[in-house]
Amino acid sequence: MDPKNFYLGRIYDPAQHKATDQSFLYDPANLTTHAIITGMTGSGKTGLGVGMLEEAALKGIPAIIIDPKGDLTNLLLHFPDFKPGDFEPWLDPEAARREGKTLDQLAADTAASWKTGLEGYGIGREDMLALQNSARFTIFTPGSTSGVPINVLSSFAAPDVPWEDNRETLREKISSMVTALLGLVGLTDLDPLRSREHILVSNVIENAWSQGRSLDLTSLIMEVQKPPFDRLGAFPLDSFFPEKDRFELAMLLNNFLASPSFESWLEGISLDIGALQTSSDGKPRHNIFYLAHLSESERMFFVTLLFAAIESWMRAQRGTSGLRMLVYFDEIMGYLPPVANPPSRTVMLRMLKQARAFGVGLVLATQNPVDVDYKALSNAGTWMIGRLQTEQDKNRLLDGLRSASGASDINAIDKQISALDKRVFLVNNVNKASPQLFTTRWAMNYLAGPLMRSQIPALNQLAGIQPFGKASQAAPSGTPDATKATSPTPAAAPVSPRGAALTSTRPVVPSGVSEYFLPLDLSSAEALQAARQPTGAQVKAVVYRPALIAQAEARYVNTRYRLDTSKQFACVIDDFESMNVEWDRFIWRPYKTDQVNDDPRPQATYASLPGWLSDPKRFTALQRDFEDWVFRNGDLKVRANETLKVYAGPEVTTADFRKLCSDAARDAMQTDLEKIGLAYDKKMDVLKEKVRKQTNKVEEIQREVSQRTAEEVGKGLETLVGLFGGRKRSLSGSLSKRRMTASAKADLDTAREDLTALNKQLEELTDSREKEEKGVEEKWARMVDDETEVPVNTTKSNIYIDLFGVAWVPYYQAEAAGQTVEIPAFKKESI
């Protein structure tokens, strides 16, 4: 399969009415300009969508998949071994009966058919295994525990982006969310500019978000009844929306919150899009949001919240030209209509216009072209059009295609659409010169059709996701380490009688002050054991006592040390004795915001607020003092190796820092060694050339000596023969030869001495190089240990308040040895 592009099928030859051998490849980068898939039932639209999502998984692209009908649950049905037993649970027994087969026979036929179909497109077992291991597939079921449920309370949390810089966009998001929420409780067809219910709830959320304060539904209901402001527009609050009417709206919202059917909306993981990108092992996540079990208003409510969450996450990212995430919506009918204005429409319009800059691509599918606002889809760069049911559908689509993509030869496209076969799609891509026809490839996942909610647990188990509530289901997001508290035991003694009166009605905190419920970290048995209560002691109730909670995150940024990290600080004060708070005495473990939601235990009782927690002005002064304390005590130690220019924050372990230093020293040493090598190589090359030439000279003189010696011997023999033969020969010739031989031997000795001297120089140069290289290695080895700690301070502008307000601290009320005592139900230290 293609390593870069999506393999979606093969080019289709309309003249031959069949596919060619040429693969149809689609560049995923084109999806940043979004895509539309349309076609009637049976056109192959679902298979095309499944194939596109398979390719996204294989290419490592995370995906948010909205599945209103249940078709895309098939994305978990990949069976690389093609065993009939794998297919059988997902077959329709009625289909087997109609074909006159047993279920076993149908399973065997289906497995064989799927294997053959994939082989026809060059897809084998290795590709199937690659798909299986490419991503983490999970089916989420908002409003149900059949799959992984979604806690919608997080949707009302304050966004991560600054309010002032994003005011217009956040107000549009609030408007969409409020319309969806009010529609869920039966208030439909609301005009955001005329409906006082919409205006009030929107202002409550805006007031909280503009202060960086998160809401949940309980606090939203309470603030609807008692808003933290006195006027709306030019009118006093009670004139615009009287208290009696606000109470009725609050009751309407509370009835929804109190409904047993809504409990499942409060379970599960938070709607954290950042956490839904990759799993803990680094694989991309494909998150399938199954909505087939929801009512129309519930689907609209969740889709609006989901798109709003995607948009908030998106705006907190840096811009990119690549495809960062895919959002696939399997049927957009009713969510982006041409006339009406449902809550989802506004946020989807913004996404279509702006998501490209953040690398978020939308793929929107529909089988009802008439019910889609094609003007809204004018930003879609790719249109994939399958068989259409009616001439009206085709004409409506052609009108939209003309306005959306600027297609000029509409008549030619009209004819091509009219002649489309099953599983054949016409692609109009703004990045291509002309439209193309292709037939979809065989899906790697078994297309079982829409699956029911009762089948979701088994589907998730195929992906290793345990049924909700049966096993410890890890949320997609990682849990940051909390700063460990080192202070003494909690503000209350382990066993302490309390004489103050308690009430079952929660006291009202000052207007504009946030309140939080600390979690019960200990079970009743654990609390009794920790408090060393006698055997037989029993917990009777939960008591909440008020305290001040202050939690901040300090960010540390230092370009010199390449540092960008953060540290949390938290304090909980239950006894305020003087004007000056010694924050060091009250250090507490930090909480995640979703751990301290406004969610008290049922039938709990409350202690009253002390005077110092009832004055809203005191909170402002205390918050400033807390920020100053964080600033004064917020220094961070950075490991530094100044020589190597290696720095690391506290998140880097000692072993990892040593490795960073070793790597840097190795690189620096290599640079020095290369410099030494360059310097010595030149000298050694010159010497080696001299040695070569001198060696040649020695060999040449040696040959001359040998020749002279032979000539001298020959001349001597000739003279000797002459003497014995009676001929008179001069001895001068022999003597001359001897002198020449002696001279050659002297030259040879001199040449050999010169060669020896040159070799010695070369040896000395080699020794000098090795010594210098060893010195460099020893120098950089010493540098690895040159480690110091450098304090880095934060700035006040980099201190962000996470939590500040009234904390309801939980205690267990227990009967022990005839006495009523209170014991902590919490832990101050990290857990």
Automatic annotation (TrEMBL):
Keywords: Coiled coil. Residues 479-494 have a biased composition (Low complexity). Residues 470-504 are annotated as: Disordered. Residues 684-711, 741-775 form a coiled coil. InterPro entries: HerA_central, P-loop_NTPase, T4SS_component. Residues 27-76 form the Helicase HerA central domain. PANTHER family: SLR6007 PROTEIN, UNCHARACTERIZED PROTEIN YJGR-RELATED. This is Predicted ATPase. The lineage of its organism: Bacteria, Bacillati, Chloroflexota, Anaerolineae, Anaerolineales.
